[in-house]
Amino acid sequence: MSGTFSKTTKQTIATKLIAGFMYVLLFGGSRSGKTFLIIRCIIIRACKTKSRHVILRKHFNHLKASIIYDTLPMVLELCFPNLPSLDSMLNKSDWFLTLPNGSTIWFAGLDDKARTEKVLGTEYSTIYYNESSMITYDSFLIGLTRLAETSGLKLRCILDCNPPGKKHWIYKIFFKAEDPISGEAKIDFEEDYTHLQMNPTDNEENLSPAYLKILRNLPKRQRQRFLDGLFLEDVEGALWTDEMVSWTKHREPGNIVKTVVALDPSTTNNKGSDECGIIVASKDDLDQGIVEADLSRKTSTNKWANIAVSAYHDYAANYIVAESNQGGDLVKDVIKNIDPNIKVRLVHASKSKKARGEPVAQLYEEEQKRIIHMEDFMELEEELTQWVPDESTESPNRLDGLVWALSDLFFGKGQPNWDLF
Q1: Strand stretches in 147-242, DSSP E
Q2: What is the enclosing helix (H) or strand (E) of 106?
Q3: Which 8-state DSSP code applies to residue 89?
Q4: Is 67 helix (H, G, I), strand (E, B) or coil?
Q5: Using CA atoms, how far apart are residues 147 and 303, in angstroms rounded to an integer?
Q6: Which residues of 179-211 are buried (b: 16+ CB within 10 A; e: fewer)?
Q7: pLDDT digits (tens, 9 = 90+) for 297-353
Q8: How far is the C-alpha of 14 from the C-alpha of 35, rounded, in Å?
Q9: Rounded distance, CA 231 to CA 132, Å?
Q10: What gap in Å lies between CA 342 and CA 317, rounded to an integer?
Q11: Using alpha carbons only, what angle is made at residue 134 by residues 176 and 245, rounded to the nearest 5 degrees?
Q12: How many other C-beta atoms can be found within 10 angstroms of the C-beta atom of residue 345?
């Protein structure tokens, strides 16, 4: 059945694990060959006997872009050249693939409740959770109840992920062998569960040197996750943890009711200058905060002002929030010179960064979970989870921008020194 595909050493090991265990986690860095190998294994299983299989991800649009129209065509071309074309097998109305023997492979995003209920209304021989670190434990359990088809194939639950923090449910199940909620030990763990680390260096022959260079130049914690494939420890004393940040990917926004562009300005532009923190954030009708964009960078006053003005228009913001401690009049004037109709709210840092940051960090905590990050903001999330009050020496400008934005949206009314011009 194979074309020109040749498994890497790690992919060979992963294939044997999928054949031998009911629950298999492939974790590690980005583009390490995990998804390709899993899709290949699912198609092999589906070709053996008429059966049903399902691939789940948090967002269907992401699944469609990354698997249906990217990884799946490559797998079919390289590993199954004798199968019909993707277009001839793919049902684009209900999004499932039908193989010549009648087996079906279904695709669903857990963000679409109606479609998920429809897809999970039947039973499957394989359930694959793609990018499982983005999926809630409740969603994982709901899908697991449909792993019950009596097709003659051994039932398989397969997960892949770039490792989150060690408090994530995935780590608790596969590394601590415990139930994430009760903490009770998993029954038959050694018999049923296994995991394998797969990193980009394990797939080096299929990657460009330029891509590996990009991964090596990521911020430290992102490099540990996407290159080294490590589950991360929380930084002692940091206001944000990896788990708090991971929850921001599990919620869906409501209707936007207010948007601000927040500026933590820099007044110089040289090698030793700080970045200018530029964060776009909104509040929705469900009382959730939504981080829309991180546009922070090290640049000149005129350039960061133009970026902020463009963001104001692009996101239909209500106003720009700017920290006034460093040249408040300058900030207001340079923005007004670009567009005199823009509203600017100057805020004054009368409290310490820790005192300003704590109420915002609490919005991320388990008891509230009121903040959504619309994408992986690597550098911002690095600052959030790395910055320790009274210890860190570098200025957390992205964090400051986030704090100004969310403070305005949640706590701004009635605060002193919040003048609107």
Answers
A1: 156-161, 193-197
A2: strand 104-109
A3: H
A4: helix
A5: 54
A6: ebeeeeebeeeeeebbbbbbbbbbbeeebeeee
A7: 998 889 999 999 999 999 999 999 998 766 557 888 899 999 999 999 988 877 888
A8: 11
A9: 14
A10: 9
A11: 85
A12: 21
Domain architecture of the chain: domains with CATH: 9-226 (3.40.50.300), 242-420 (3.30.420.240)
Could you give phi then psi for residue 257, rounded to 5 degrees?
A: -115, -20
Contacts by residues 91-98 (CB-CB < 8 Å, ≥ 24 positions apart): 95/60, 95/64, 95/68, 97/72
Q: What is the dihedral of CA 111, 92, 107, 52, to 10 degrees?
A: 140
Q: Which residues contact 323 (CB under 8 A, 6 or more apart)?
A: 263, 264, 265, 331, 346, 347, 348, 349, 400, 404
H helices of 21-131, in order, are 34-48, 60-63, 72-79, 86-89, 113-119
**Cβ contact 55:156 at 8 Å:** no
**Is there a contact between 241 and 405 (Cβ–Cβ < 8 Å)?**
no
Section 136-141 average pLDDT: 91
Weakest mean pLDDT among 149-153, 246-250, 410-414: 410-414
In angstroms, the CA 61 to CA 98 distance is: 20
For tokens 């277009």, what's the residue?
A: 87
Q: Distance (Å, rounded) from C-alpha 361 to C-alpha 229?
A: 26
Assigned token pair, 90: 């793919």
Rounded CA separation 270/365 (Å): 37
Of 163, 162, 168, 188, the residue nearest 177 (C-alpha) = 188
Instruction: List, in order, residues 6 or more apart from 124 with CB less than 8 Å away.
Output: 51, 52, 53, 54, 106, 146, 147, 148, 149
State the DSSP string of 230-288: -PBPPPTT-SS-HHHHHHTTS-----EEEEEEEEE--S--STTPPPBEEEEEEEETTS-
Least confident residue range of 85-89, 241-245, 313-317, 401-405:
241-245
pLDDT digits (tens, 9 = 90+) for 205-241: 999 999 999 999 988 888 998 999 999 888 889 999 9
Question: Which tokens belong to 308?
Answer: 């902020």
With 0-12 CB in 10 A as exposed, 13-18 as middle and 19+ as buried, what is 403? Answer: buried
What do you get for the CA distance between the two ends of the chain, in Å?
69
The answer to whether the predicted template modeling score (pTM) of the entire model surpasses 0.85 is no
User: Checking DSSP bridges between strand 23-27 and strand 193-197, what pairing results, if any?
Assistant: parallel
- Cβ atoms of 421 and 331 closer than 8 Å: no
Alpha helix segments (H runs only) across 266-392: 301-314, 328-338, 353-364, 378-386
C-alpha to C-alpha distance for 259 and 275, rounded to whole angstroms: 22
